[in-house]
Amino acid sequence: MRGIQLSLNQTQKPRLERALERLESLSSKSNPNASVTVADTIPVNYEDGVLKGHGTSELDGQVVATLCGVVERVNKLVYVRALRARYKPEVGDIIVGRVMEVAPKRWRLEINFSQDAVLMLSSMNLPDGVQRRRTAVDELNMRTIFEENDVICAEVRGFQHDGSLHLQARSQKYGKLERGQLLTISPYLVKRRKQHFHHLEQYGIDLVLGCNGFIWVGEHVEAKDDMVEDQANKSEQQNSKSTSSPNLEEQEQTYTPLEIRQNICRTANAVRVLSNLGFNITVEAIMETVNLSSTLNLDIHEMLGAEFCVLTAEREAERRSMLTKRKG
Amino acid sequence: MEYVSPEGLRLDGRRPMEMRQLRAEIGAVAKADGSAVFEMGNTKVIAAVYGPREVQNRSQQMNDQALVRCEYSMANFSTGDRRRKPKGDRRSTEISLVIRQSMEACILTHLMPRSQIDIFVQVLQADGGTRSACINAATLALADAGIPMRDLVTSCSAGYLNTTPLLDLNYVEDSAGGPDVTVGILSKLDNVTLLQMDAKLPMDTFENVMQLAIEGCKAVANYIREVLQENTKQLEYRRGV
């Protein structure tokens, strides 16, 4: 079941209800009666020259919603912003996806969109960092870069003529995500921002908030741009690498310290709690939730319990009322 | 047998033009894009919608519209006598088709080309009117999944027993062998998307019965709208700004 599925005890239940009521009263002040359901008429005051955007259609000269959501107006444009829906890509969005298929010269990624997205071999940097034409050999070696079921981070490049969605990964920050957890939440909870990659230094983890509602929490990896490095220098390194025992090195590579693993789990649980409650997912909100859990000395698994859920809701209500007070 | 008592009460104590109690809940399946449970009295149906998503069978892909699929099934424990029903028997194939067609009539499929929408409905408790309950549940689940629709399809059945038109037949009344009219309408557009009847009815009584069923559909539509409105409001205020 979606949403809050916890057995709340007698004191927790009214507390949660009170917190949610408070949230409701806070939001209803700012934006009353803007929510519509399918086939509701949207009142338009100036009749002439209304631009009907997404989620609307015309019926007998009236603007009618085709989605459940919130009516938004920008000058003459009227559209309905859907809440729970699949991801709608926009050019430049940073997304996290999973490889479904390795096809000729491309990977197909599941990104919670109505079709699979396409990542062309030519629209990503090769791991050796050299800029060159992709050869048939590169094509054969595609599985060494990404395999099926790998989790990948990329950027939306745009729609092709045939309607397919193309991605690109032209920087070292994009690419395969390893040693962490992938969380799937509703995309409407993730807001588009300047920064979607976050390095939480005190925990040694990386947080990628994909616009498509896929969230990656993983061990921090140092993003180094291979292209800047001297070519000759690197080949030397490679030679020295091959001489040392590969087994030991491999072990070292796959090892994640326990503390970092716990941090990953704690952060992931924070995201779970917030998305269960239906709160917006931002780094600040996640960090606050993580801090709250660690100041309360809660175990990681206790974060998914009823008490923490209520506490998070109460704190969010507190935070939002502070915000509106400051504005007022 | 007497289905309407001289006092004008039916077997389960309802008036002839009274519906059973409705209950709907959104978000019953965690991993689905949209889901709902819909109850009409003792009939209980769960629906889950997946998509729009990549078409599984490439040969079925359409370049100008979405592919809508529907699967209806009845849980083994849904009826009085527990029996294992073979998947894909004639009855469930027919109902799958009926649900798919009435849903296709309201989904704006041209907005989601090269994709597929899967609707799964399962009857958890059967007490007559499963067809209508399935359509209502599917509508709710589609709206929850954020799939653009022309209007909400709602459905309700009506029958004619003891020379009285009866709204929303239950299992006992349904198995009496009288006529059973199932109507599905788009409430805002006032279009009929589904009309099924077994047995025969004279023309003038048929019109009365159908009118009664349409009234039932409108009542269901009002209820569904309320549920959706409440759900949207809740999502919006929880999200905050």
TrEMBL record, chain A:
One of its GO terms (biological process) is rRNA processing. Its main location: nucleus. Residues 229-253 are annotated as: Disordered. SUPFAM superfamilies: Eukaryotic type KH-domain (KH-domain type I), Nucleic acid-binding proteins, Ribosomal L27 protein-like. It is found in: Nucleus. Keywords: Exosome, Nucleus, RNA-binding, rRNA processing. One of its GO terms (cellular component) is exosome (RNase complex). Residues 234-253 have a biased composition (Polar residues). Residues 90-170 form the S1 motif domain. InterPro entries: Exosome_RNA_bind1/RRP40/RRP4 (IPR026699), KH_dom_type_1 (IPR004088), KH_dom_type_1_sf (IPR036612), NA-bd_OB-fold (IPR012340), S1_domain (IPR003029), S1_RRP4 (IPR048565). SMART domains: S1. Pfam families: KH_6, S1_RRP4. One of its GO terms (molecular function) is RNA binding. Belongs to the RRP4 family. This is S1 motif domain-containing protein. It comes from Ilex paraguariensis.
UniProtKB/TrEMBL annotation, chain B:
SUPFAM superfamilies: Ribonuclease PH domain 2-like (SSF55666), Ribosomal protein S5 domain 2-like (SSF54211). It comes from Ilex paraguariensis (yerba mate). InterPro entries: ExoRNase_PH_dom1, ExoRNase_PH_dom2, ExoRNase_PH_dom2_sf, PNPase/RNase_PH_dom_sf, Ribosomal_Su5_D2-typ_SF, RNase_PH. Signal peptide: none annotated. Its main location: cytoplasm. GO terms for biological process: gene expression; nuclear RNA surveillance; nuclear-transcribed mRNA catabolic process. The keyword Cytoplasm applies. GO terms for cellular component: cytoplasm; exosome (RNase complex); nucleolus. This is Exosome complex component RRP41 homolog. It is found in: Cytoplasm; Nucleus, Nucleolus. Coiled coil: none annotated. Residues 18-148, 151-216 form the Exoribonuclease phosphorolytic domain. Gene3D superfamilies: GHMP Kinase, N-terminal domain (3.30.230.70). Belongs to the RNase PH family. Keywords: Cytoplasm, Exosome. The keyword Cytoplasm applies.
